[in-house]
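note to self: the first set is below, dont mix up w the second
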Amino acid sequence: MDALPIADGHVVYTQAFMRGLLPDPPLWIDEWSDAHMRIPPGGGAEVGPYKIARTPYAREPMQCLSPEHPSKRVVGMVASQLFKTQVGLNWMCGSIVGAPANILALMPSLNLAKRLSNRIGKTIDEVPECRKTVASPRSRDARNTIDTKEFRGGTLYITTAGSAANLAEIPARYIYGDEIDRWEQNVGGEGDPIDLAEARGSTFGRNAKFYYTSSPTLEGASRIADLFAQSDQRHYYVPCPHCGRMQILVWEQLDYDIETKRAQYRCINTDDCGALIDEAAKETMLANGEWRAHAKGDGETVGFTLSTLYSPPGWVTWFGLAAQYDKAKKALERGDQEPMQVFYNTRLARTWNSVQEMTKWEELKKRAEDYQLRTIPDGVLALTASVDVQGNRLELKIIGWGEGLERWVIDYQVIHGDPSLDATWAALDEILKTPIIHPCGYRMTIAAAGVDSGGHHTQEVYAFTRNRQHRHVLALKGATKPNRPVISGKPSKVDVTWNGQTEKHGAELWFVGTDTAKDWLYNRMKLPSGPGAIHFSKDLPDEFYQQLVAERRLTRYVKGFKRSEWVKAKADRNEALDLAVYNLAIAYYLNLHRYKEADWERLRMRINPPQRDIFESPAPEPEAPVEHEQQPASSGLFIGRKESTQTDGWVNTGDEPWL
């Protein structure tokens, strides 16, 4: 038996070295996928040979991912279940066979990484060209595992984007990041995971390729939207079957009727066409479509965006989308934003802005009503006040409350002065003690007031509220813990004696669940009337409305868990919103949120009884000046003063829960 020839190490090394100097053979991922890719059972609704004709809009993204294309970064801000993951699979498989090098596939969580690994494994088994190249899985063999798949010329690593070690140890020519809007914002305190991931490809220079995909989330916090903004922003144009006009399919042009289960698309060419397009024409429209860039971009990033309106026939129908939107719209009218956000993100591939979509400040201003500040419209049955402390001023808002917590802005003003000075607080005290005249002539006063103590003048706030607790003037502080009550059940004592003991009768601090309060306020901001609605005076300035909607709720993922928080939309002031939060907290402190119809009726009868005392002195005209020196200290009851009562000058019948 002849002996096996012994390999010459020098020759083998030289041959391998020379192969490494050769350029990659021509490889276009779209052509390779058409010829070789197969979808395994469980990998999609349509198993078998991959047919790019079903999703013709996927061809250009695959071309941009090809080694021959000059782009460095490909971004897909795309609705769910269109082409994101399949294009990624095609790209990785084509690269393994035609241009092998290390590949790093990153997912937002370990479970999703395992799911992707399973899908890749099934695809490799189904595609003969890949099966011959990738090491077969064997027991006690680390070359083909859940997170590692070796092949001739490189290794595919499948892991999470939540570990700095995962992003730092592996050099990779190709990086695939899926659902990047669900990634952490800062990985292990070492920075943005996108930057960390791309650093793994730095040694490959211009040969490196990065592919990022995701459906977007919230405006201002969407990583995929930021990447798309720096790209050339390509949109898919399709021809109208009636007039041939090339156009983008946008949600606003869908004409549907839920009752008749009809959905058609109206041509955007209203001058010469405007025809209704049946969904049966969509296959031809998609086949004749083309991508068009809307921006110049940074020169190395190409971006694609696509909504579910482009879903191929047999997948998601136009009417199915309309039914989902109708359901989300009804939930939105009830104050539940989540279904509409999901529709925007996963179906329209648009970011969701709860402030912009529900409460544009211009729309709020249009609702301003014909009443003056410091006057009380009909329907107001209780008054509360809130104070925001700034470095050179105090800002005050008075809210009138009606049945079902319907609200009216009664006053909004700035008290200029240094909060370190007693005179500034004395001016505030005079305003809080001054009655406001109800239309029936009744003199209403502030039931309770809250002062923000969270700034640089905490001790001044404690000093102001300490001796006014009997008037229900409270020191407040916001707390952003999720699901915290609008106001804490009992206050915290903040004064201590010389030996460190809590002062029993000292200043008190009430904590406010700001996130919970803002959810309540924003969910009712759009209501024009009825329970929970807010009414605005014509005297309010533009900046009041702008401040009222200066924040929005953003959802981020921290270590794979969803974290939602309120942040400013821009670097704008938000005092009007803070004051609204504190007024709501004071209303909860007074238990107004628990009032039933009989409770509101009792207040209504007390303010404007059917038969008034004929010997009661007439109330002054609203515009008559108030002599402050004649106003005694308030007991805190909002109802007002009766001339026949001579205790401390204020009615105190004891039948309201806050007395």
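second set (the one i keep forgetting abt)
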Amino acid sequence: MVRKIVWLLAVSALLLAGCSGGSGGQGFSKRTAAGKEQVLRYPIVTSPSTLDPHAVEDGDTIDLLQQVFESLTVWGEDNQVKPGLAESWTIENNGSTYVFKLRANAKFHNGRSVTAEDVKWSLERACNPALASPVAGTYLSDIVGVADRLAGKSDTISGVVVRDPATVAISLLRPIPFFPAKLTYLTAAVLPKESVPANTVMKSTTDMVGTGPYKAKSYSTDQLFVLEANPDYYLGAPKIARIERPIIKDAATRLLKYKNGELDLVQLERGDVSGLQSDAKFKDQLQFFDRAAIWYMGMAGNAYPPFKNRDVRRAFAMAVDREQIVKETLGGINQLANGILPPAVTGARAQAAVLPFDPTAAKALLAKAGYPDPAKIPPIEFNYRDSRPDVRLVAENLAAQLQKNLGMKTNLRSMEWGAYLQKKDRGELQLYHMRWGADYLDPENFLTLLLTTNGPENKMGYSNPEVDKLCAEADVMPLGPERDAKYARAEDLILQDAPWMPIYFQRDAELIAPRVKGMRHSLFGHLPHTTVTLE
């Protein structure tokens, strides 16, 4: 009894001490610190581009929304497709039909159980032309009937059939081995029709009713997004009560807040890494993560007519010393991209037919294309996203090298991320520095999707019939050397045509606080925080 009384007195003293802390002075008050014990805090570098999983297309926002929404399939730490809302699936009709069996204990945040009808309704919502999703056609167009739904010719998707309340069959236009991987993308997230808008994108956290491990609690525009644990999550309630995602667009501010103990995780810019590696306090908190992503310089002929000429694109590509950018500008942290496919992608090669750095040849190509005097070439706008110093540094380096080695002056312009994405989707970017991260580890996700004539993500107007033919053949082939060889030939043709100039494969540097345990990772990024604990 005495021991119990002493323990209660100690707890009372701690609580009183916590309530007495003032808000003035530096750092957190005792009261604030106590309240943060079970709160994971890490920033978003830009405001969420959307609150709607069926419309999201950027990695920063996906990292937020994947805590709230889920699809039939998800990624595991081994970078393999795992059961999500579907506990299992089988394949019929020689690979053209996938039959998904739903988990019996999966529930929406409103408390209702997930059914096969919800799967069908959600896919039809994602493809509703009124919603105007920029990604539904990209990830769902293999399903029979999706094209008609996107075009407004049908109110349903004929290829999605409810067999019973727990079973849904999805029929494809062609057998593709990577279809379950496509469904990991949030445009296939399952939603309850009674709680979300059917014809418009979600505008507030009250619309954001999903099945994920966290619920959307509140969002103060451009300031803070708050998530709270879902106690009814089918894999068990998360081990932490709350996640706070402050929107902090300035990199220096993000790092300062981490050092002050106000954040638990922060992604670093390359210029900060060397100093932290020699900092006794923080060097052991520094972690590196390889990502299945490439950063490149894109040249869009549909937005800038000179880029329709292959020699002009090749001239721009050969005027840039990519190795100098990777080694000097970015400090050697990232791997030089000597191809389009990142190392973890099936069929990736250490050396593809990437164009060499050769300023003399570049000038000759520009003259051959009709521009012996670079001053006579039409003005060109060079866009890159804001809030990321590394992106700015590389863009500035690219512009400087084009000026030095070609005499080509560019109008360098940073853009707010949401506006940048909209301009990209409209095919209005001329010359730009951008990233593409794998949605699944298959060459189709890079070559077919982005660089074939009718690829859903080809916003540049690039076209090569031989590339189209090779990719179309490889897409439906079984995995193996013959398929890899076709994609390799297509990749080499693209590199020689130079709609893209690969620069580097992504490697993230992050500071993660020692109190954060159990965080799961994959080549696609951090996985939903179902196992995270805070000491």
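remember for set 2: Confidence is low (pLDDT under 50) at residues 1-34.
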